[in-house]
Write a structure and sequence with these properties.
Pathway: Purine metabolism; IMP biosynthesis via salvage pathway; IMP from hypoxanthine: step 1/1; Purine metabolism; GMP biosynthesis via salvage pathway; GMP from guanine: step 1/1. The chain is built from 4 helices and 9 strands. It has 183 residues and is an alpha/beta fold. It has a single domain, classed as Rossmann fold. The protein is globular, with a radius of gyration of 16 Å. It starts with 9 loop residues before the first strand and ends with a helix. The protein binds guanosine-5'-monophosphate (5GP) and magnesium ion (2 copies). One magnesium ion binds next to loops.
């Protein structure tokens, strides 16, 4: 019978809840300093960035607005298709706005590359990226990411918002999925 404990499906914890909390506080302090006196719009990319957005935004001391965008390039597979589709667009007109895109992970970089072009075309005053995780070995396009939490190996990870087939998002740490889960 399938075990109900998420942890039996993991081979390794890569980043702990505590490490994430510490890092997000550091990034928030930088963001507070960099955007002092500016009107900041945080844009989270659904659904993976939900946890990062919740913790990062609450670690900020300044006023921010929060909006969400849903795009898809993955489906239930573990490889990027490179084809980005808007599932839910912004509610906000970002022309003239200072936008900080909040992401869970930069893998190939294809999704963010597309989003950056898309936001630039809408006339944002500035666009920066904050990603909790980045896989340098997986990059297909270079992304200029001002705020990065952790560089990690080229493994498929889950937890802290990141899913496999919509599961594991509620895990508090970031972990590598065990091979028997794919089989
Ligand atoms: P990219 O376009 O940079 O390849 O990645 C697009 C999206 O795929 C990410 O924002 C993330 O939602 C998902 N993704 C990329 N790598 C991983 C991974 O290791 N685990 C999980 N669960 N999702 C990933
Ligand atoms: Mg994402
Ligand atoms: Mg996913």
């Amino acid at each position: 019978m399938e075990s109900s404990d998420i942890r039996n499906d993991l081979t390794e914890i890569l980043v702990t809840e505590e490490q994430i909390n510490t890092k997000l506080r550091q990034l928030a302090a930088q963001i507070d300093a960099d955007y002092a006196g500016k009107d900041l719009l945080l844009v989270g990319v659904l659904k993976g960035a939900v946890m990062v957005m919740a913790d990062l935004s609450r670690a900020l001391t300044q006023h921010v607005q929060i909006d969400w965008m849903a795009v898809s390039s993955y489906g239930a597979s573990t490889k990027s298709s490179g084809v980005v589709q808007i599932r839910k667009d912004l509610d906000t007109d970002i022309a003239g706005r200072h936008v900080l895109i909040v992401e869970d992970i930069i893998d190939s970089g294809l999704t963010l590359s597309w989003l950056l072009d898309n936001f630039a075309a809408r006339g944002a005053a500035s666009i920066e990226v904050c990603a909790l995780l980045r896989k340098p070995e997986a990059a297909k396009v270079e992304i200029d990411c001002r705020y990065v939490g952790f560089d990690i190996p080229n493994d498929f990870v889950v937890g802290y918002g990141l899913d496999f087939a919509e599961r594991y998002r509620n895990l508090r740490d970031v972990a590598v999925l065990a091979p028997h889960v794919y089989a």
